[in-house]
Amino acid sequence: MATEDPQAQYFENNPAPKQLRKHEALVREFIEYHISTNPETRIVLVTSGGTTVPLENQTVRFIDNFSAGTRGATSAEYFVRAGYAVIFLHREYSLLPYSRHYSHSTNCFLDFMEGSAGGDVVVRQEYQMKMKQVLEEYQYAKKNRLLLMLPYVTVNEYLFELRSLATLLQPVGSRALFYLAAAVSDFFIPRDRMEEHKIQSSTVENGKKTGNGTQLVINLDPVPKFLSTLVHSWASRESMIVSFKLETDPNLLVSKAEQALHKYGHDLVIGNLLTTRKWEVVFVRTGEERWVRVPKAKRSRSVSGIEELVGRADKKKDAAKKDEVDL
Ligand code: PMT
């Protein structure tokens, strides 16, 4: 029997991604490994990057969501440092933990190296210390199997993956953390309305040419809000759920974060503004609003940005009372 619930309808009407079963098997194995090695291990699901909305089934064009994956990739490194095993659900080709230090488009990784004719290629002297530290952390995470990378591209893939991962994490209970930093599309084209092939520039709709043949009119449906279902049904009641709120208008940020907290009933909303997201965030919990800011003087030379600061502020309770926390 067909269901009225928009979330359930979504999964009935849209196809499961091809890689879902494989990802589920990897996650099951990852969780079992960590629980059997150390039953106290905490596991975090970090979502990162932006989802796409394809316009065609055989996709040539798509609508994208803003996010480089910096927040998610950086946070994943700090979670590993803090002792978590990390499931990193990320947009394919967005920034990854560890390699993010060398993948910025203005910083080609080859610029970090040098080599003479006939000699070895080596890391340049000035980058040795930093690269050694990143390499050691990367090797530590790899050796201890602390990082499981799962890519997605579309909003549909993301939602199916999120539902599966939350369900698989249920036995982890209060040692599971959801850290939802991905930028998730709010609108999409349902499968039954999606073109199979590349949309032609002269499109015929209902027997009529749309516009003068140069206009493309796209009709999008809202993506059902999944945070509430995640909190109340997919995830264990004992797990901790942290969502992010991105706004561009400073006057809206805190009230929208409070609304989300109230509406979805989860643990914490971290608010950030598009233009200042690397330097300041606001933690919104029931009855509490706490800003964490990188001091102005340290903004340009801070490599790790606000994620490092948040880690330190959490350890240092006094710091929580200050507006700016020193790095
Ligand atoms: O990667 P960077 O370039 O470093 O950028 C990081 C970031 C700015 C993307 C990140 O810090 C951030 O703010 N991520 C959340 C952005 C976002 O999607 O905000 P939103 O207001 O659209 O969604 C808020 C929450 O609702 C999210 O937790 C989302 O998972 C959830 N949601 C969204 C859409 C939807 N259909 N259902 C949902 O449940």
UniProtKB/TrEMBL annotation:
Keywords: Ligase. It comes from the Eukaryota. GO terms for biological process: coenzyme A biosynthetic process. It is an enzyme of class 6 (ligase). SUPFAM superfamilies: CoaB-like. The keyword Transport does not apply. Its EC number is 6.3.2.51. One of its GO terms (molecular function) is ligase activity. Residues 174-277 form the DNA/pantothenate metabolism flavoprotein C-terminal domain. PANTHER family: CORNICHON-RELATED. This is Phosphopantothenate--cysteine ligase cab2.
